[in-house]
Amino acid sequence: MEGIPYLQVPREIMNQLGIEVVSCDDSDYRIKVFTTSRPIGATYSSMDGSGSFYKYTGAETSGRLRVDLAGQPAMILRFQHLREPSRIAFRDDGVLGGYEEKDAPFASTFSPTGAYYDAWISLLWNRVPEENFVSLVQVQDRYWQAAILRFIDKKDIRSSAPYLLRQLETPLPSSDQARLLLRWNDERVLQPLHKLMPRINMIQDYKMVFVAMKAFKHFKKVESVPHILRFMERMDQRYPKKTYDGRVEAIEALKAISGKDLGSDLNLWQKWAADNDLWSP
Q1: Which of 15, 139, 246, 256 could be cross-linked to 217 through a Cys-Cys bond (beta carbons 3.0 to 4.6 Å apart)?
Q2: 113: burial class by Cβ within 10 Å (0-12, 13-18, 19+)?
Q3: How far apart are CA 14 and CA 28, in angstroms?
Q4: What is the pLDDT of residue 5?
Q5: Does the predicted model carry a pTM greater than 0.85?
């Protein structure tokens, strides 16, 4: 049962809302979870062509939350979700587990479906003050955050902006947080994006690169220029062929900010920035 979010995530939600979690005998209401989850696996080819491996990266989950209040009819929220196996999977000998479903780790297949979290969101929305609800983006579970960000996006809940900005300052920021702030034309997103640029990992954070460059291009602030140039300098050294994701977008951002077209040569952009007191090697 370790890692299954029946208790961990709801407990963090309740703590964030200031609701005390106690034993059933002492509680004002009870929430029961009934669920069935079936892991779905697929066979993947090794990147080096040495063979293939099997991994569970999908799941089908269904169930319900039952809320019992004293003297009132039970409230039931049903959920169902299908997550197809991903197109790409990294080999991890610790979770290969063989070819039988019973070998798949339940927590890692249950969490990504998101349905369980969607049910909790439906339960809380309009039942707690909006200010308290939007604070739940701070609950540190990536699948919970993905679910609540989808909901905030769908409902266009812009009062969540201060919390999204705060989350971008944490060790595990999400490109969806930045994307929402950009869609809302919130210029405050630039500061955390500037701070993120030196530590962006192209393998893990490629989506954040695209969102960041789109924001820099959109807002056209000269303060973004040195951050773009340092990113390009670092990545050009790592990838001499200069074919990495984000480089074209970085050039487009520089063009939008400068109003000039100096091509794709980093040296020319650095010279322009230095001439305008925006860059010092």
Answers
A1: 256
A2: buried
A3: 14
A4: 60
A5: no
